[in-house]
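[Discussion] Sanity-checking designs against the backbone

I'm trying to build intuition for which residues belong where. Below is a C-alpha cell string of 196 positions. I'd appreciate it if someone posts a full sequence so I can compare it with mine line by line.
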C-alpha cells in the first residue's frame, strides 16, 4: 500500500505515475460488477495507480470513458490490456469486449495492446502459490505489488476479505450475494490474478 488521503486532498502528484510511460489495465467482466485496475511498473514493482468499476457506471463504454477522461493528459497513450479471457467472447453486435475496448480507446487517441490469451488459466493451486510467493516478497525474481491507499481502497479490502477453499479456489460466494458490497467481493482480486 502506498499514498495517503492528504496527498489526494492537496493534489500531490503520484510519485510512481509516469505520464511518459505506457499504462497497464486489467479487466474482470463479472456480470453485475466489473472492475478495472490501472497499473504502471517501476523498478520491478507494479503500482496499482487507480481503480474503476462498472457497478457505479452504466457500461463498458462508461468504464473506458472514465479511464480515458482520468488519463486525458497522459503523454504516452499506450495501454497494455490484461484480464478475463471471457472478454474475447463475441457479445453485443458480434464484437468482443476487447474489440470494443480497442475501438473505443483508439478513437480517444490510445494505442491498445490486448495481452490476454484464449488459453485456460493455470490451476487454482498454481495461481494461489504464485500469488502468495509474490505477495510475500521473498523472491527477487518476482514482481512486487503496491496499491494506492485511497484510489484502490476497495481492491485492498477485497484482497483482505477473499478466502480460499481447501482446493485453492477462491471463495466466490460473495460475488453471487446481491446484498454483499460487490466492490469488496473477489472480483477485485481477479484483476490482480489476470495481470500476474
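Best answer:
Here's mine. Compare freely.
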Amino acid at each position: 500500500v502506498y499514498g495517503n488521503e492528504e496527498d489526494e486532498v492537496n493534489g500531490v502528484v503520484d510519485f510512481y505515475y509516469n505520464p511518459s510511460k505506457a499504462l497497464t489495465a486489467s479487466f474482470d467482466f463479472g456480470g453485475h460488477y466489473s472492475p478495472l485496475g490501472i497499473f504502471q511498473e517501476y523498478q520491478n514493482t507494479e503500482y496499482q495507480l487507480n481503480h474503476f468499476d462498472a457497478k457505479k457506471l452504466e457500461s463498458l463504454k462508461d468504464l473506458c470513458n472514465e479511464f480515458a477522461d482520468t488519463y486525458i493528459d497522459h503523454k504516452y497513450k499506450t495501454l497494455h490490456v490484461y484480464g478475463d479471457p471471457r472478454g474475447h467472447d463475441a457479445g453485443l453486435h458480434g464484437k468482443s469486449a476487447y474489440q470494443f475496448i480497442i475501438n473505443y480507446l483508439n478513437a480517444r487517441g490510445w494505442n491498445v495492446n490486448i495481452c490476454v490469451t484464449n488459453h485456460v488459466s493455470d490451476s487454482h493451486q498454481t495461481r494461489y502459490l504464485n500469488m502468495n510467493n509474490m505477495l510475500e516478497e521473498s523472491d527477487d525474481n518476482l514482481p512486487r505489488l503496491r496499491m494506492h491507499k485511497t484510489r484502490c481502497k476497495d481492491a485492498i479490502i477485497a484482497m483482505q476479505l477473499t478466502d480460499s477453499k481447501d482446493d485453492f479456489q477462491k471463495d466466490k460466494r460473495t460475488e453471487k450475494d446481491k446484498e454483499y458490497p460487490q466492490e469488496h467481493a473477489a472480483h477485485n482480486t481477479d484483476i490482480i490474478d489476470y495481470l500476474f
